[in-house]
Amino acid sequence: MGEVLLSVIVPVYNIEDCLERCVNSIRSQTERNLEILLVDDGSTDGSGALCDRLAKEDRRIRVFHKENGGSSSARNLGIERARGEWLGFVDSDDWIDPEMYALLLQEAAGRGADIAQASRDEIDEDGNRRPDVCAPPEAVTFCPAEDFLRELLLHRGDCSFCTKLVRRSLFVGKRFPEGRLNEDFRLLVEMLSEGAGVCILPQQMYHVFYRLGSNTRKKDPDDFSRVFLDIVDNADFVEELVGRRYPQLKAEAVRFGLFQRLDYLLHIPIGRMTSKDPFYRNVIRYLRRHVRDTLTNPWLSSKNRVYLLLLTAAPKTVRKAHARLRK
């Protein structure tokens, strides 16, 4: 494995307080044959200068400064400039264990996998560990593409590219969608549609720094992140893909579409729930077309069914009641 170069891409934007911890965790990897690409996405604090200083300390670090375009734009630039056969991604406020990439390379090579995934945990601002988002397997597991897609549709799989090591060839003709959130899901589904299975390690070696105020974790409950629009668009995308590529997963794909719309409706500001909003109007139409699926789909919980049926019948009334419960 020593002959294989690994490229680790880190998008950087106004993250001066966390960046050094992140980069040092990559520099400390037991797999030494790697390069670190720091893509400064138009930072306005001292992050760009910190990138340059870190590059002077370690010649494996390369820095690219660009105008602000978002995380996907920064990642895509990193993909274009990467020299490695394998690509990894680390968010600049997170950190990784020293042996993560060595173990991922070892398992990917041993099992002939194009994607290897570490398990993860989440640490809050006070240093407390949060409940696991995805349950780690008990042992190293190879998950064929169809099985992994099924886990994603049931919200049991990890779609993040940060926990993964991906063979460069899978990015040929593919990039992260720019100007969107939930972008990892979209790109990973595209790779799975071509039959790329995933080797999953049980060790929780990727550490997510969970803090309020990010794109998807707003402090103000009235904020409406565009992620709730993108998750619905991605549900439509994957439902169409399943119809072409994995028709045996139709029930799971419909469940996913219903669940994503439920999430959207439980977060949309009441003032936006109007027939003049075409996105909202289409969400309600979907629910009304799938009342039978809401009643019979085996992958929905009883609570999901009740909320979906109520929102289908009286969306504003239910949304107002839910808003009061959240306060």
UniProtKB/TrEMBL annotation:
> Could you tell me which CDD domains the record lists for this protein?
Glyco_tranf_GTA_type
Q: Which Gene Ontology terms cover its molecular function? A: glycosyltransferase activity
Among the Pfam families in the record, one is Glycos_transf_2
Q: Which UniProt keywords apply?
A: Glycosyltransferase, Transferase
Pinpoint the Glycosyltransferase 2-like domain residues.
7-171
Q: What Gene3D superfamilies does the entry give?
A: Spore Coat Polysaccharide Biosynthesis Protein SpsA, Chain A
| Protein name, per record | Glycosyltransferase
